[in-house]
Design goal:
Helix content is 37%, strand content 16%.
Length: 352
């Protein structure tokens, strides 16, 4: 990361969290973001859920809610970028303040509530980048006041089909009341059944775009095994493990630890990686996993991979390390793979 970008990251941390994020999006949109100086070195390519990624480090949903800066983030070195969460109708989200930096813990608490400009704006931004390189996914959600949340996901798929490289069904945010209930067995059958039905209608005799499912970290072993089986039976291509947690580890020091919302960042690493291991054991290699939660360096990305992730996603660490972090993670990953005698990243997936 250049001195200019490092100074920019420091200055942004002086602003209130949500204001800093908005300013970052504006700056990236004007071409002020970092650029990866080198192409991804050979050995980090990986196939995940039907996607061929140049490297395994992706940008998690939440950073680019309206798909405004996917191209600059790809230029920064990310192997793939997930935009959203987008809902059919625009919504303001929860009252402010709703985003908190837990600096002492290198963590973030958010209760944003799927604030976004809606499908029309999102679709327009995707259409603008149609001919550009790089993989961009759409993270789909349901409106807070929707009378039929299952149908909201169907609407999202229909609106963005052919524009997004993959789709993520997000039923794991703790900030929309009742959304996580869609992880229950009967509700998930209804949801994934409808997603499968819409997918078949849209695909016809052409290859389908991959569809992923993003799950919560606050799950028991029985739920994990059941979610894996349901996902496989409905043709879900990969699971994103996991979203933010409602738990509050006793190790938290920041005064913002009492704020309601989802906790992300460093304190989530150990618990989310353990959940990832359990998903990998339940999946038995039959469905790909993407590891999310607390990754802030190459070692932690490598631990996620060894625990069963074919790729990882980051977001909260960018608050503290800046967007140049992705290149240092990839460089470190390559060194670790070579040191352990792996000729490709795929060989390291799940070895622990």
């Amino acid at each position: 990361m250049s001195i200019l970008h490092e100074l920019g990251t420091i200055l942004l941390r002086k602003l209130p969290a949500e204001n800093a994020h908005k300013l970052t999006i504006k700056a990236l949109g004007k071409g002020l973001g970092p650029k990866s100086n080198t192409s991804t070195p050979s050995g980090l390519e990986v196939n995940v859920g039907g996607l061929s990624l140049p490297n395994p480090v992706g940008l998690a949903a939440g950073f680019d809610k309206d798909c405004e800066v996917s191209t600059p983030m790809l230029a920064a070195g990310f192997g793939f970028v997930e935009c959203g969460t987008v809902t059919p109708l625009p919504q303001l989200g929860n009252p402010k303040p709703r985003l908190f930096r837990l600096v002492e813990d290198k963590a973030v608490v958010n209760r944003m509530g799927f604030n976004n400009a809606g499908l029309d704006k999102f679709k327009n931004n995707l259409e603008k980048r149609k001919l550009k390189n790089g993989l961009v996914g759409a993270n789909l959600g349901a409106n807070k006041n929707s009378k039929n949340r299952v149908e909201d996901y169907a609407v999202g798929l229909k609106a963005l089909w052919g524009l997004s490289d993959y789709f993520t069904i997000n039923i794991s945010s703790p900030n929309t009341p009742g959304l996580r209930d869609l992880q229950n067995e009967n509700a998930m059958d209804e949801l994934l059944g409808r997603v499968s039905e819409v997918r078949a209608e849209l695909t016809g005799d052409k290859p389908s775009f991959p569809i992923f499912l993003k799950v919560a970290p606050d799950l028991g072993l029985g739920e994990i095994e059941r979610i894996v089986e349901q996902s496989r039976s409905y043709g879900i291509n990969a699971l994103i493990v996991s979203n933010t947690t409602i738990a509050r580890p006793t190790s938290l020091k920041s005064r913002y630890k009492i704020e309601k919302g989802g906790l992300s960042g460093q304190p989530l690493f150990e618990s989310s990686t353990e959940i990832l291991r359990q998903f990998y054991a339940a999946a038995k290699g039959k469905i790909d996993l993407i590891g999310v939660g607390g990754v802030s360096n190459g070692l932690q990305a490598y631990e996620k991979i060894r625990a069963g992730a074919s790729a990882v996603q980051i977001y909260s660490a960018l608050v503290y390390e800046g967007p140049g972090l992705v290149n240092s993670i990839n460089a470190d990953l390559l060194l670790r793979l070579k040191a352990d005698g792996f000729s490709s990243l795929t060989e390291a997936v799940g070895v622990d």
